[in-house]
Amino acid sequence: MFNFDNVIERRHTNSLKWDNFGPIYQLTSIEDILPMWVADMDFAVPQCVTTAITKRLEHPVFGYSNICDNTYLAIINWLATHHHYTVKKDELLFRHGVIPALANVIAALTKEGDAIVISPPVYHPFYFIPTNLNRTLLTCPLVEQNGHYHFDFDAFEQQLIKAKAYILCNPHNPGGMVWDEATLREIVRLCAKHDVLIISDEIHADLVFQPHQHIPIATVAGDEINRVITCMAPTKTFNLASIQSAFMIVHDANKRELIESYATANGQGGINVLAVEATRAAFEEGEEWRLAMLDYISHTMDVVIRELSTIDGVTALKPDGTYLLWIDYRATGLSEKEIMQRLLTVGKLALEPGTKYGVEGEGFLRMNLACPLATAEEAIARFKKALA
Ligand SMILES: Cc1ncc(COP(=O)(O)O)c(C=O)c1O
Question: What is its EC number (predicted)?
């Protein structure tokens, strides 16, 4: 029914992933490089999304518009049925991306000089958003044991004592962890103890493999729910990054007002008319596509992990969620510079270097597997060639 095997030519479409990575990897020519870096998919979006956008395009006026009730309803129903998360319409604030949402929340609810805690290795904007806003960044690295990561809650509490906010990544990019209930409850307990705001980036919430289950931290926060702000989007799940659609869930009316007034003062707004339609269609009708896509990527992950394990010094564990594989090459003895050089010049393969997510990512690479199996197999061949 869905053809995820279809290899779609994305070159020369102004794609960041396929057309514009030369300067990032310091390459003058990129035509023969296979890019598996930035987190978007090489799959066609669900047909329901294309149909919804096309239908809206048939009306020739694109004046100022509102977010329709059906889009609110689609999100509210999705959160209730997929995540047992009850959300009211007025608790939803729309932004054109999760990054703008994170920046909006930090700017509105913390002050210059305030300390913000993050848990590296972690999605790199968690570093640059607070620092660009002149906040002080406090890191509390996750502890890695045989490829699994967990929190060091003693160290975490020591940082929270000094902090105003914590940015959680759940599911975690790049490690792929889906944090369990006990971990989430402990995060809430400690943040409550030290009066720390919890900003939870849950953009990967709907990209979780069985038997894992995503739990929004707000749903275990109990009486502390007002200290949680959750950022979500349809864009990662349904491959809509450049449609630009995201939303925050803010239960506390006072915080909503601060966030909205900061946004108004700084010219930030909601989402455009096509994003409204795409978001509604994805959440209303995209479930079958999502389940098939997850099955497909799960299989691709298994194949790639098996193949990688045949390379000396290289291992990877299947993530609980996300389509990102976190590859451990520490046992090869290669430095990051050496392996990146080999991958780019010999293998002609562009992966993300682990230190992009903090020094704790040294010895790891991130590979984006939201692609046809044939592309992943080609990547493996190139990886092997680079390390031969
Ligand atoms: C954890 C996380 N947050 C946010 C984003 C980007 O969100 P947006 O494109 O909506 O700004 C990504 C993209 O990879 C991500 O992995």
Answer: 4.4.1.13
Q: For ligand 1, which residues put their CB under 6 angstroms from it?
A: 39, 97-99, 123, 169, 173, 201, 203, 233, 235, 241, 246
Number of helices (H) and strands (E), helices first, in the chain? Answer: 13, 15
Distance 98 CA to ligand 1 centre (A): 6
Whether residue 353 sits in one domain with residue 239 = no
From 285, 302, 318, the end of a domain falls on 285
Q: Give 49 Cα–ligand 1 centroid separation in angstroms.
A: 20
CB contact at 8 A, 304 and 380 = yes
CA of 201 to the centre of ligand 1 (A): 8
Q: What is the pLDDT of residue 312?
A: 97
Domain match, 60 and 32 both: no
Calculate how far, in angstroms, residue 234's C-alpha sits from the geometric centre of ligand 1: 11
Return the pLDDT at 234: 98
| Confidence at residue 197, expressed as pLDDT on a 0 to 100 scale | 98
54 and 189 housed in the same domain:
yes
The string of pLDDT tens digits covering residues 244-264 is 999 999 999 999 999 999 999
Give me the long-range contacts of 98-102 (CB less than 8 A, separation at least 24).
98/201, 98/203, 98/231, 98/232, 98/233, 98/235, 98/246, 99/125, 99/129, 100/246, 100/268, 101/231, 101/246, 101/247, 101/248, 102/126, 102/129, 102/167, 102/199, 102/201, 102/231
Given a cut of 90, is residue 269 above it in pLDDT?
no
pLDDT of residue 1: 83
Which whole number is the average pLDDT over 326-331?
A: 98
Number of domains in the chain: 2
Ligand 1 atom 16: the closest Cα is on which residue? 173
Amino acid at 347: G
pLDDT digit string (tens) for 197-218?
999 999 999 999 999 999 999 9
Tell the residue nearest (CA) to atom 7 of ligand 1: 98
pLDDT band of residue 158 (cuts 50, 70, 90) is very high
For residue 238, tell me if it sits in a domain.
yes
